[in-house]
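Re-run with default settings, no changes from the original entry. Doing this only to confirm the output is reproducible before filing.
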Amino acid sequence: MRKTDTWQDNKDIIAELKQQDSHFASIFDEHTQLNQQINQLERDLVKHASRDEEIEQMKRRKLQLKDEIYKIIDKNKTQSRT
């Protein structure tokens, strides 16, 4: 997979994996929820200032999930070519 691939570039395979792979669906949903929570906290400057460490932990977890999501996508792409 190219480094510039996005969710949009992989939307078909993501939709397929979300239906066929419960683990993938779970981590994709967790990633989406974390993204929404982080965005909401960062928009609220009062909450943001008091929760910097929590936000950083959420961002690290989100990145771990993203890495795992792309590994699964890559693996699935490789298997579908063979």
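The chain has one domain: 16-81. The mean pLDDT is 88.
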